[in-house]
Structures are given as C-alpha cells and as structure tokens.
Specification:
2 domains, 2 helices, 47% strand, Immunoglobulin-like, globular, Methylamine Dehydrogenase, Chain H, mainly beta
Length: 518
C-alpha cells in the first residue's frame, strides 16, 4: 500500500517541478528474508529477466530470479539453489545472466564436476537454463581445468551469448601451469557448443603478468568477440614502463577466426596515479569499453570511456566523474553499460548523516558526449546501507543493490542487513535528482526517517528558500520561507506517514525530498 501511495504522490507532484527520468518504480526483496542475508550484493539484468545474488553468508545457498510482468513490475519467479550444496560454498555471491542462461558462482565449493576430488574452496560455477515454462533449471557445473585449493574459482563471472569468462579470487601460475607469481591472476573462457554444453576453451593471463596484479579478480566483461579484464593493482603503463604502484590497467582480448582469444591491447588511464585502482570495475558493450577507478582522486572515484576505432584500437575518449563527488565516495565501485546508457555505483556516497548510505549515477550519450542525467539513491536511506555496491542496466531499467538495507519493500519489517534491490525506469520522473541546470552540489536531508526536526544542508549559501511539505494526498501541510542560509532546521509538526518536501531556491532551482515522519 505504501508503494502505491508513493507512486500517487509522485503523480500529484509531477506538475510542481520538472524532473528528468530514471525515477524509482520498485524496491524488491526476497520472499525469505533473514538476518545477514545481504540480498543485492550482486545483480545482473538482461531484457525482462534479472538475477540477484547474496554476499558471503555461510548458511545461504540461493540466487533469485525476477521477471518483468510486462507492466513494469518485477516479480520473483524463482529461487535458484545449488544441486550439491555444502556449508561455506558461498553459492550466489556472483551472478550473471544472458539470454536463456544464468551463471551462479560458488567460490567456496570444494568438489569437481563429478562432485568428487575435494579441494577446499577450489570453486565452481553452476549454470541454469530457461525452460519453456519460463523457469530456469540446473544444466551444468563448471570448474577450472587446473583447479587448486583456495583459488575460489567463480568469484567473478561475465557472460554474453555463447561466451563466458570466469575468474578465481587468486591464481599464481601462467597458462601452462608454471612460472609462479603470487596472485598474478588468471581467467578462464568457456564457450557453448552446438549441443548446449559449456566447455573451457582457454585460460588467459596478462602478457606482462606480475605478482599481486590481481588480473581478473573482480573485473570481467565480454561482448561479442571481445573480452576485457581489469587488473587494478598493476603498476606499468601500456608499454610496460613508467611504474606507478597500483595505478591499474585493463586488457582487451579478441577472438580470431580460429577460435583463439588473443590479447590485443592494454589500456591505462590518461591521468594514471598511484593507488587509483584503474580496472577495479569494467563493462563492455559494442564499441564502448568502460573502466572504473574507484580510488581515483583521493577515493572520489572515476570511470573512463574507451571507444574502438576502425583499426580495432581502443582509445580513451572521456573521463566520467560525479557532478557532486567528494573524497571517499568510491564512485565506480560497480559499473555497467548498455548502448548509450551507463550506470555507476558509489556505495560510500553520503546522502544524510553520518553517511555511507550510497548512491548511483546515470550517464547518457548524446552527440558523442556522455552526460550525467540522473543522481539516484534510497529515499528512505539509513547509515551504511551501501546503495550502489552493485548495479546493472538493460534497456529502460536499472537495478541497484543495497545489501545492507534493513526494511522490506514497504519500508517495514526491520531485519538487519537482509538487503534489497531498487528498480529505476528511464521513463519515470526522478524526484531524487535535479536537472542539469539545477543544483551543482548535493542537498542532504537527515535524519530520514525523522521524528521532529528535519535537517537540510543546502551545500551552498542561498538567499531565498521556499519549502513546501505535501502529504500522500498531495495536500500542502507546511509552507515556510527562509532567507540567507545554507542550512535549515525544519520542524515537522505533522502526523506519522510519507511526505514530500519541495525546495525552491532563489525562485529558480527546485528539488523534492521523500521523507518518512515517525
């Protein structure tokens, strides 16, 4: 009921301000919420299907499948479970979906494809295939051909059509199983054959591998005949020179006519610097490669867009930063690209006080330039929710994971760190953000939920601030004017419930904040 009322409020308020798209349409939680579940630690979406994973939970063995019902409602249709679950498998920590296939990582799994030959935390990935019923059945278990104890294969997964790439959390040897270099990293490529079986076809490593580069540990992407792998702790530039500790890099591989994947390019940031972790996150779509650097500029974070030219060379064309970014946000914790749209998570972004509620940003390409078009977050946020820890985008829908969220879809039924995923629609007005001509810095409102006094930090000195508060019926219940201020303490002498607080600054700029009065 609260969600219906909230949607009604947004409709009633639509004539009060101009808001761009990417409004929140839904908050989803699993049907079996429990303490510490951390639902939303990984998310992926492809068309009308989405899959949601959980973080490290020794007792959990699930991943959750959602389907768009055609009316924009994402409905849980299935809970995927390991067919041979063991405690500490960590099934569901990593998830990926493409077409009819869902991949679920279980990096703590100790057995091979025949469920024998135990090696502690060697890791595995479970593949599920969509059936005529629309549900996904277990199809196949895959492991690394050179599996080792504690490698945690399945920690990273990416899949696109007939190709998949899987990484362990750590790996020390080259493609031939020799030349030990501690945590240099590796990844494994699988291809689906004509019979529908996924086979390992190649193990890849960096051409200039070195100890503690962490090649492929968490950043993998595949699209068509291209694979991109991040190596966030790598030190050398694209020519193997100019050592800068942990500046980071990414490697691009291309599949040739004979089916072999060859490294064709190493890319680095044009402004590389020490400890910036370029290659922490990565995404690939068509001629666009997106590489995240979540420690760029004193942990503010940044993402770099590369485009492939006619000579098959990937060139950096733009650096993306948050319009309101500050040190510690970790912008580019997770990233995703689909066509001319990008979503970037910043899970340490402060929305209220004391902070770390998290946020995400939408960028869209117009006339060759990527521009931030939406700033999104949980309107009912609380401290250290980590909204934006995981993100995914497909078509008009974006998903944002908040694995430490405590409330259900109605902002009720508190369960600590049960987790949630928020759904945003490109065609829904976004009252969390402001248009390009509006505020250049963020507005903070806290606490939320609020009991008596709502603190509003405007982040800049303002001559005239008009504030109107509306209830769920669209009725104005509070109207106040403030002058010459950058911070406001707004008394809320209203009954408990959902409200919208509209702010108009200097008769030009407007924004709306959703709050809960307790």
């Amino acid at each position: 009921m609260k969600r219906l009322l909230l949607l009604g409020i947004l409709l009633l308020m639509s004539n009060l301000l101009i808001a761009q798209g990417w409004g929140q349409t839904q908050k989803i939680v699993p049907d079996d919420r429990f303490v510490g579940q951390q639902f939303g630690a990984d998310v992926d979406i492809d068309g009308d299907y989405a899959v949601v994973g959980i973080l490290v939970s020794n007792s959990a063995r699930d991943a959750y499948v959602y389907e768009n019902d055609g009316a924009g409602n994402w409905i849980q249709i299935q809970k995927l479970q390991s067919p041979n679950f063991n405690q500490f498998d960590h099934f569901g920590t990593a998830v990926a979906i493409s077409g009819d296939y869902i991949f679920v990582g279980a990096w703590g799994q100790g057995y091979d494809v025949n469920n024998s030959n135990f090696l502690s935390s060697a890791g595995a990935v479970y593949i599920f295939k969509k059936q005529a019923s629309g549900l996904f059945d277990f199809e196949q278990k895959i492991v690394a051909s050179d599996r080792e104890a504690l490698n945690a294969f399945g920690y990273g997964i990416a899949v696109n059509d007939d190709y998949a790439i899987v990484s362990p959390v750590r790996h020390d040897f080259d493609v031939s199983g020799t030349d030990f270099l501690d945590d240099a990293g590796a990844a494994y490529i699988f291809e689906k054959d004509g019979a529908g079986t996924w086979n390992e076809v190649q193990k890849i490593v960096a051409s200039d591998r070195a100890a503690f580069d962490y090649f492929g540990q968490i950043a993998l992407a595949v699209d068509g005949n291209y694979i991109a792998v991040g190596s966030y702790a790598e030190d050398e530039d694209e020519n193997g020179t100019n050592i800068i500790s942990s500046a980071g890099s990414a490697y691009v591989f291309e599949r040739d006519g004979g089916g072999t994947w060859n490294e064709i390019q190493k890319v680095v940031a044009s402004d590389r610097a020490q400890g910036e972790w370029f290659g922490w996150s990565i995404s690939l779509d068509g001629n666009h490669l997106l590489v995240g650097s979540n420690q760029n500029n004193n942990l503010t974070g940044a993402a770099y867009v590369f485009e492939k030219d006619g000579n098959d060379v990937w060139n950096e064309v733009q650096k993306l930063i948050a319009s309101n970014g500050v040190a510690g946000d970790r912008f580019a914790q997770d990233i995703d690209i689909d066509g001319n749209r990008i979503i970037i998570g910043a899970h340490f972004r402060d929305i209220g006080s004391p902070g770390d509620e998290g946020a995400a940003y939408i960028f869209e390409k117009d006339a060759g330039i990527w521009t931030e078009t939406a700033f999104i977050y949980d309107a009912f946020n609380s401290t250290s929710e980590y909204f934006g820890f995981s993100v995914a985008i497909s078509g008009d829908y974006a998903l944002v994971g908040t694995y430490r969220d405590d409330e259900d879809e109605n902002e009720e039924n508190y369960i600590q760190s049960a987790g949630a995923v928020f759904v945003f629609n490109a065609n829904e007005p976004n009252t969390l953000s402001v248009s390009e001509s509006d505020f250049k810095t963020s507005i903070k409102a806290y606490p939320n939920p609020v009991e008596n006094i709502l603190n509003i930090d405007l982040s800049k000195y303002t001559e005239v601030v008009a504030i109107s508060v509306y209830n769920y019926l669209g009725q104005k219940v509070i109207s106040k004017m403030y002058t010459n201020t950058s911070a406001i303490k707004l008394p809320l002498e209203v009954s408990k419930g959902l409200y919208l607080v509209e702010l108009i600054l200097d008769s030009k700029y407007s924004s709306v904040i959703k709050i809960v009065k307790q």
